[in-house]
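Subject — a protein and its fold
Fields — amino acid sequence, structure tokens
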Amino acid sequence: MAQPNWTDPALIRNFCIIAHIDHGKSTLADRMLQITGVVEDRQMRAQYLDRMDIERERGITIKSQAVRIPFTALDDNTYTLDLIDTPGHVDFTYEVSRSLAACEGAVLLVDAAQGIEAQTLANLYMALENDLTIIPVLNKIDLPAAQPEKYAEELAGIIGCEPSDVLRVSAKTGEGVEELLNEIVRQIPQPVGEAEAPARAMIFDSVYDTYRGVVTYVRVVDGRLSPRERIQMMSTRASHEILEIGVSSPEPTKCDGLGVGEVGYIITGVKDVRQSKVGDTITSLNRPATGMLSGYQEPKPMVFSGLYPIEGTDYPVLRDALEKLQLNDAALVFEPETSAALGFGFRCGFLGLLHLEITRARLEREFNLDLISTAPNVVYRVEMEDATEHVVTNPSEFPAGKIAAIYEPMVKATVLSPSDYIGQIMELCQERRGDLQGMDYLSEDRVEMRYILPMAEIVFDFFDHLKSRTKGYASLDYEPTGEQQADLVKVDILLQGEAVDAFSAIVHKDKAYTYGVEMTKKLRELIPRQQFEVPIQAAVGARVIARENIRAIRKDVLAKCYGGDISRKRKLLEKQKEGKKRMKMVGRVEVPQEAFISALSTDGGGEDKKKK
């Protein structure tokens, strides 16, 4: 076999685009693909790199996408640009962190009409931690509301450059994009690695293909990888043969090997999703490297929710579907659980509510499943008086007995907003048990506020309330910051004296009454009337805090009695009453599936619904 034609590392530039959600990352990637001729005009479509239907529908990026772009710069050399388009939403930060590890530089994109947002700052700090070269860019300069001068100064102040160094582009019209590509070639350093050393490549993403098995995306750091070569995963010691190796340009294209600094994909025919772990190092089996590359931090789930198939027979299908999704999504964790009300299902861990929503939508769409998800809740740590400890991911796991202390997870939240809304933001954060840590003015009319908040208060409808109180101008970013003791209780919902585990919730003591009243009221409307009267109660321990009654369906037993003695009517009514009493003793309250779906699919499942 002829010696492959390796790309000279001096002509390679690996970079990603980082920005807040909706600031135009995917549109800028589209223009780059179009200007460099990678995608012909007739094949072009908006958000070309967003492959999933759900990404295109919602207009958001969920999965990072890597694409190779050839570009002839001003010095007449043709460079290989490896672009990684990243998500902007806080729930998908782990996708961004993995992309950054495969790059030497980042394009920091800021909307010229909105300025810097909280997620932009978070991604910027992450890029600086990885020692990446930052190229600041203002996008959407074609908008009538754009204020490029003002936001260039704001951006320059944060990064520590001159306002004139901030590039101005319009991803929609293509203005300034070619100049940006030249700056990427000029400013971002070439990848560094030893071509003759044993091969080492970092897995930064992997996806499951029904026909070809696991497709692993890698960034080669040292040495070379070739087709038909036997490789080894350094953490699991599993070895495979490379069946196909190639690059995405932007469709998968076979090549005869990957060298230092190149980004591409490998197919080994492996069907087991756990054998291509993101963050693992690939090396050659015949000439293995000694040290692994530093991987990624494992993303920790923040929110737990139960997923149950409406049809019990779909349980094995749901298990297979979750295993396949787990390959594409390293942050998804799940374990089997059963519920008296909902049957067999899985307790799943997510990074946030959007992550939960997207995962559920993908399961329903890609695997034709009908699912119920229980009210999301965070992980609590309960210390008992007998010194034992319990980790509670589900209200049904809440221990009975004497509790010494309950600890809940806390987050460090950053809110960026115009200064007109400081009062509304402070009021909202105080309602949610927030503790103000500091406040800085980024410019005359934009402020950054830092709070410590309980995770449970943020994951439900905090973001919606923040947006509505600030007319959509505020942005939020948060990161976990340990735990804190809190005054929490478990609220049980009882139907005719029996607790229904699916409706239980762990809430702050001050909010237990509100939750109980709202849930009992809701269930009274959702559960159909039975042959006997059904009490719906909300209880904390043995103390009932709220109650509603579902009145019995009453058959008119007096229909045949017209006139006559009242004692005869009374006798018939007494007989009916006896029958109802007996029925109540043996009868079970029938809760239809629709009632579970409606009660659990409210905004935040009621755990922290605020009175408007």
Summary: The chain has five domains: 9-187, 200-284, 303-373, 383-485, 489-606. The domain at 303-373 is CATH 3.30.70.870 (Alpha-Beta Plaits). Confidence is low (pLDDT under 50) at residues 45-63, 582-587, 602-612.
